[in-house]
Amino acid sequence: MIIQVVTSFFISMCFGGAFQLRLKGMLVAGLAGGLSWLAFLIVKPLFGSDFVAYFFASCVLNVFSEIAARVAKMPAISFIVPGLVPLVPGWALYSTMYDFVQGDTQAAWSSAIFSFSTAISISLGFVLTLGVTRLRRPKWMSLKR
Amino acid sequence: MESSRIIYVATYAGKIMLESGGEIYRVEDTINRICQAYGIKQVDSFVVPTAIITSAVKDDFRSKTVIKRIKHRSFNLQKIVRVNELSRAIVADKLSVHEAYRELKEIEQMKGYPLWLSTLFYALISAAYTIFFGASVLDAIGAFVAGAVMRLILYPFEKGQFNVVFIHVIGGAAAAIGIVLLTLTGWFQMSNMMLISVLMNLFPGLIMANALRDIMAGDFLSGMSRVSEALLIAIAIAVGSGSVIGLSMSLFGSDIL
Question: Which family is it part of (chain B) (predicted)?
Fold first, then answer.
């Protein structure tokens, strides 16, 4: 578990670097990725469902990124993009492709449906947090600028 | 004269942001804010992933319009950060139009990380992913090599601004070829995990995140076009790697990966 959190921190940090972020942004992006994967690992045994766990992880990612964006005065997208990467269901996407190549269409469809439902739960997390931040946005913008 | 310069500078800032992978609402917001900070009160901008249209009306009801076409994009989050800082400085009334223009020119020509460093980043992502999936350190080293090689193969294609779909087919195929060659040496156990880790580099995470945020902000047109772009890229990666895997299965037996 600790190894997974540390490696997801590292993955997000390197992804930030690959998208040309400087060191400060890379570290915050790494934190976003590590925290969201930690949330996934905590929530998954509680509910026993990947769908709920991905939703919570996505919420944590978005909330953390929005707060960090306000504090660091950097756009939230620069933390969300690298932080999203550990949440991508790479295994399911791969086995979709692999089973199609092998001719096992039924197994391919079941992994395709799994990756699709993961995408839906991640985007639900986006929807919820963005809906809230967008509500307050005009107010604080006009106050700050 | 002055107002057309202001609109041009604002649209230029928006262009840099959009090319580097900013969200639609952020680009529109930046353009409107810069114009308003310089005293143009009535300004509207219409942004889609491939074009920016900015139109402003002065007090004498004469309107001025600038259209910028976005031909190719190179994702660079640092440029978004810097344009964001610049627009904050402009709104705080610290920069003249000329200084803003010079600053934008500098941001556009900003040097990214050197090739060896960005290759190292991608290789490290591959290695870290392999350990993330629970494979051994030896497998991680193999993924490190394959990720670095794939990035170096893709570099000339990205520089030459080829079609994104084409680039990702090549990338998927290069990753699969690299992993198959590494597997043939017989040193690695979890070669399928290594392949996932390397393919993860290509995943269109930025486009997907942008698409979701666009849709939530009400820009359905841009959001849906970005969703379809991300889907197309995912299919391209699958086609590239899948064809190589299918070929190597018929050459070396079906348990190669």
Answer: Belongs to the ThrE exporter (TC 2.A.79) family.
Given an 8 Å threshold on Cβ–Cβ distance, is A25 in contact with B122? no
Does B257 fall in a domain?
Answer: no
Query: Chain A: residue nearest B80 by CA?
Result: A75
| A·B CB contacts under 8 A | 143
Number of domains in chain B: 2
Residue A73 is part of which domain span?
2-144
> pLDDT tens-digit profile of A89-145?
888 999 999 898 888 899 999 999 999 999 899 988 888 887 777 655 555 554 444
When the pLDDT of each residue in chain B is averaged and rounded to a whole number, the result is 89
Q: Of B52, B75, B108, which closes a domain?
A: B108
Structural domain span for residue B12:
2-108
Q: Per the CB < 8 Å rule, is A134 touching B217?
A: yes
Structural domains counted in chain A: 1
Is residue B123 located within the same domain as residue B198?
Answer: yes
Residue in the structure block whose two tokens are 């993860």 = B200
Distance separating alpha carbons of residues B126 and B135, to the nearest angstrom: 12
CB contact under 8 A, B212 and A85: no
Residue with structure tokens 């698409």? B211
Concatenated DSSP letters of A36-47: HHHHHHHHHHHH
Cross-chain residue pair B209–A77, CB shorter than 8 Å? yes
The closest of B43, B42, B1, B41 to B13, measured between CA atoms, is B43
Å between B132 CA and nearest CA of chain A: 5
Question: Which pTM value belongs to this model?
Answer: 0.87
Question: In the listed set B82, B108, B134, which residue is the last one of a domain according to the structure?
Answer: B108
Q: Which one-letter amino acid corresponds to residue B61?
A: F
ipTM of the complex: 0.86
For residues B141 and B98, membership in a common domain is answered with no
B196 touches chain A (CB under 8 A): yes
pLDDT digit string, tens, across residues A70-90: 888 888 889 999 999 999 888
Chain A residue whose CA is closest to B257: A98
Residue B246 covered by a domain: yes
What is the predicted pLDDT for the residue at B41? 83
Written as six digits, the tokens of B137 are 């350190």
